[in-house]
Design a protein that fits this description.
The structure holds two protein chains of two kinds.
Chain A (H helix, E strand, L loop, with lengths): L6 E2 L4 H16 L4 E6 L11 H17 L3 E4 L5 E6 L4 H5 L8 H9 L10 E5 H13 L18 H16 L2 H4 E9 L11 E10 L1 H7 L3 H5 L1 H24 L5 H6 L3 E5 L2 H4 L2 H13 L3 E6 H6 L1 H14 L3 E6 L16 E5 L2 H4 L3 H14 L4 E4 L4 H9 L4 E2 L2 H14 L8 H9 L3 H4 L5 H4 L10 H10 L2
Parallel strand pairs in A: 1-3, 7-8, 8-9, 9-10, 10-11, 11-12, 12-13
Antiparallel strand pairs in A: 2-4, 2-5, 3-4, 6-7, 6-13
Chain B lengths: L9 H14 L3 E6 L11 H12 L8 E4 L5 E6 L3 H15 L10 H4 E6 L3 H10 L2 H6 L5 E2 L2 H11 L8 E10 L2 E11 L1 H8 L3 E2 L4 H17 L4 H4 L5 E4 L2 H4 L2 H9 L8 E5 L1 H6 L1 H13 L3 E4 L4 H4 L11 E5 L2 H5 L1 H6 L6 E5 L4 H9 L4 E3 L2
Parallel strand pairs in B: 5-8, 7-9, 9-10, 10-11, 11-12, 12-13, 13-14
Antiparallel strand pairs in B: 1-3, 1-4, 2-3, 6-7, 6-14
Classes of the chains: A alpha/beta, B alpha/beta.
Chain lengths: ~475, ~375
């Protein structure tokens, strides 16, 4: 085998032939040769992310360079290394680039992303396992994997124009058109009762509607880049605070319903927003009219300036606004102490990866939940019933997400006298909007924000209803 | 109310701030940007009200007021000044409450508070950005970095050679009475780049846009080190990086060029908000870095940060902690927050007393400036 490292792309018949040629040559003189397949196609989405493929390829190429090898990218996204495996195993095992040390190194990198860790790599000693290797090479390729978009920044002028347009949109649009709301629920015990009969509204979060924004301008880059996203969030703080203040003092379109239901409204703010005078004005007005607010701060923001956050925390206490920490996914949960901020609630973002982690990750997740206390956790972005099942099994009874939106909408439709022509999807969209233009499609708008939601929707019905939504 | 007569003393303020940094004496400073008062509050009576708002702070322990250019005022005092500071901030908030919505100004833009010596650099940066010299060189008013300028900077930096903006500073290892350079820290002098490329902009005004900009700095710094010749004569060193850069092709090129003698001798410095912006990306990057022999360090460590961020679970090797009187009074308070395997790099330990303290109390790694 050639000592030259050449990585062969897998998007042509020519590269398939190159792989076959190399495999045939290796099998003609198999002694001391080794093949290793890294099955990136078996990783749980969103893996493999572009950087994962890139870095795995770099590791394999490093080994190829040191051991007269070659790396091939297969059509299904897997990587294949063909190289020599020198006999001095003791010496080799000590360097991470040695062929025999590679599986362990790769497992450390990808172990969290694969359900069955034993299936991450396959190694063949060609001397003994040549037949099996040949079967792998000649097997029909799996489904082709589209090349993931490169994650390098877009330095083009177009990017600047898009981001500037978003900047302008956020600072000049009619604010309610950009807003969405979502009601989180507290699931009460009640074996045998329909799911909707066990829901108690917990709070209503006012957010910016990414769906609406994306209809009006290209927000992909701003959403994908956490730093840009925080910049735009900060930009909106002042507008949100001013608008809520004006709503409390004047129309009450957003706040009045929540006051009537004694429901707390959650705003997403940055620590800088909390220490602003606009916040002080809102706090004063809220106290006057008896409106209840909570403030959600992302953990990332809190760690960016812990001293400012400490000051903001004190202002929240003075205003009587509870703090809610959000922005925790299953990994952040295990490397942070959100309880250090003394929050009333902590929002954990649901991911199917929570349900089936590696054993050590599972222990870390369980320990983190115990530290925070399940009674303080809200399972956020609960888009399916699996989130409810997972949460309840851990004592988490507070949920927020599309699945609950659907359960609530099903409950509303079952009791609404004007709902004959309404679809579940329409009811969810209208309840989630603050834009009058979207809500006006409802013939019974008073019911959109009402709770309890009445009878009729069980877990299974809701699951089926959600499944039918395109 | 009569406004107090403060000395016009930018130099005096800079000296005091530098002195607190060198001696690690704890002070707080409030900088009141009366020059940022919007039009509706720009009348002389408003200026007087703004000054009166912070007058109570002059009663704080060892308070020293400073009259700066363009009508700005700074007050430096000892300890936290909790009650006086709260009163002052409330009074300033009250003043701002009269503004029409269109001219709303966040409190933080009118009055900023700095904990010294930890935030001495920030205050000095602020003074530098607004110094009379800088103002004289600026054609227009100092403006915050915005999206459009960020995009232009990123385009300019995409292929730029920023070698002349890269700076080094030593991390010392105290060994008995001897001290040797444990490694050198390599970083990009952001303000110097800004002074060249966008002198009328405050590039740290929006911390998130600045963080985004640092990715361009990272990439260009790595590009300047992407051949083995670039690092041939180098000893152990540390780099400030973002997780996103660590996962990028530029880092792989740097890694491929790293001489074998430096493998295991390079430390990568990350910050907590960056880690939490992509926790899964961080874990992958950390594992990759470990596989390739890099050490990882948490920047800007403090008791407040370590109460939120679990450095042990994140499996980092080092943390930067500022040398402060609180730490000096109770060194175990920092140690209790840290797993045994995490080593502390003491920052801001510039004075002989601080070095002696570090030696005595078992902090063998120190950064002077």
């Amino acid at each position: 085998m050639s000592g030259v490292v050449a990585e062969v792309a897998a998007d042509s018949a020519a590269s398939d032939r190159a792989l076959m040629d190399m495999a045939e040559r290796a099998l003609r003189a198999p002694r001391g040769k080794l093949a290793l397949a890294l099955h990136l196609s078996r990783l749980r989405p969103p893996a493999p992310r572009p950087h994962q493929t890139r870095m795995a390829r770099a590791l394999l190429q490093d080994t190829a360079q040191l051991h007269s090898g070659q790396v091939f990218a297969l059509r299904n996204g897997d990587l294949l290394l063909l190289c020599t495996a020198p006999p001095d195993e003791q010496r080799l095992i000590t360097t991470p680039s040695s062929p025999r040390a590679l599986p362990a190194a790769l497992l450390r990198l990808f172990g969290a992303d694969i359900p069955d860790q034993e299936k991450l790599t396959t190694t063949w000693r060609l001397e003994d396992e040549g037949d099996r290797f040949w079967m792998f090479v000649t097997a029909p390729p799996g489904p082709a994997q589209a090349d993931a978009a490169e994650d390098a920044p877009d330095d083009s002028g177009d990017s600047a124009a898009r981001l500037t347009a978003l900047d302008t949109l956020l600072t000049t649009s009619f604010l309610p058109d950009l807003l969405a709301q979502q009601t989180a629920i507290h699931l009460q015990p009640g074996r045998g009762l329909p799911l909707s009969a066990r829901l108690t509204p917990l709070f209503r979060e006012i957010t910016f509607s990414l769906a609406t924004l994306s209809q009006r301008t290209d927000i992909a880059e701003a959403v994908a880049d956490p730093f840009l996203f925080r910049h735009f969030t900060k930009l909106l703080d002042a507008r949100m605070l001013e608008h809520m203040h004006a709503d409390l003092e004047q129309s009450g379109k957003i706040t009045r319903g929540a006051v009537r239901q004694n429901l707390r409204l959650h705003l997403n703010l940055t620590p800088e927003g909390i220490v602003s005078t606009a916040f002080a004005r809102l706090a004063d007005a809220a106290q006057r009219v008896g409106a209840r607010f909570g403030v959600e701060v992302s953990l990332m923001e809190a760690t960016a300036d812990p001293q400012l956050m400490d000051y903001a925390r004190r202002l929240l206490d003075m205003a009587g606004f509870p703090l809610i920490v959000d922005g925790l996914d299953h990994v952040a949960l295990t490397i942070s102490h959100p309880a250090g901020l003394r929050p009333a609630l902590v929002k954990l973002t649901w991911s199917p990866l929570l349900a089936d982690p590696a054993p050590d990750v599972r222990r870390a997740i369980d320990a983190a939940i115990a530290r925070i206390g399940p009674e303080r956790l809200v399972l956020h972005r609960a888009e399916g019933e699996d989130a409810l099942v997972w949460g309840q099994a851990r004592g988490i009874m507070r949920f927020q997400g599309y699945f609950l939106d659907a359960v609530q909408a099903a409950g509303r439709i079952a009791t609404c006298h004007s709902a004959r022509a309404c679809t579940l999807r329409q009811c969810i969209a209208r309840a989630g909007a603050l834009s009058p233009a979207i809500r006006m499609g409802c013939g019974n708008p008073g019911l959109l924000d009402m709770a309890p939601y009445g009878r009729g929707a069980g877990s299974q019905e809701a699951a089926h209803a959600v499944a039918r939504i395109p | 109310m009569q406004s107090p007569a403060y000395p016009d003393d930018m130099v005096g303020l800079r000296e005091l701030v530098q002195k607190t940094a060198l001696a690690a004496t704890q002070r707080r400073a409030l900088l009141l940007h009366t020059d940022r008062l919007p039009h509706a509050l720009a009348k002389p009576q408003h200026q007087r009200l703004a000054r009166a708002a912070i007058e109570g702070l002059t009663q704080a322990d060892r308070a020293q007021p400073f009259e700066l250019s363009r009508g700005r005022i700074a007050i430096v005092w000892r300890d936290r000044g909790g009650r006086e500071l709260d009163t002052a901030m409330a009074a300033i908030s009250h003043l701002l409450a009269d503004l029409p919505e269109s001219q709303a100004l966040p409190l933080g833009q009118l009055a900023s508070v700095y904990d010294l010596p930890e935030q001495a650099d920030w205050l000095l940066d602020e003074l530098r950005e607004n110094s009379p010299l800088a103002a004289a060189n600026d054609a227009g008013p100092s403006r915050a970095l915005d999206i459009a300028m960020l995009a232009r900077l990123e385009q300019t930096l995409a292929q730029a050679d920023i070698s002349r903006f890269i700076r080094w500073r030593p991390i010392l290892r105290l060994n008995g009475m001897a001290q040797v350079t444990a490694w050198e820290e390599r970083y990009v002098a952001a303000h110097d780049i800004a002074a060249t490329l966008c002198p009328d902009r405050r590039i740290k005004a929006d911390p998130w846009l600045f963080r985004r900009l640092t990715r361009s700095f990272d990439r260009r710094m790595l590009a300047s080190m992407s051949s083995p010749q670039d690092m041939r004569d180098s000893g152990p060193f540390a780099l400030n990086l973002n997780v996103g850069t660590l996962l990028g092709p530029e880092f792989l090129r740097f890694d491929a060029a790293l001489p074998a003698t430096l493998r295991g001798e390079v430390t990568l410095k990350l910050s907590a908000p960056d880690i939490l912006s992509d926790p899964a990306g961080f874990v992958f990057a950390r594992n990759f870095a470990n596989t390739r022999g890099y050490k990882l360090l948490l920047r800007h460590g403090s008791a407040a940060l370590l109460a939120l961020f679990d450095i042990g679970a994140a499996e980092l090797d080092y943390v930067e902690m500022p040398y402060t009187p609180t730490l000096a009074a109770d060194p175990d308070s920092a140690r209790l927050l840290l797993p045994a395997r995490v080593q502390t790099v003491l920052t801001g330990a510039t004075s002989p007393q601080a070095i002696a303290w570090a030696r005595t109390h078992g902090f063998p790694l120190v950064r002077g400036a």
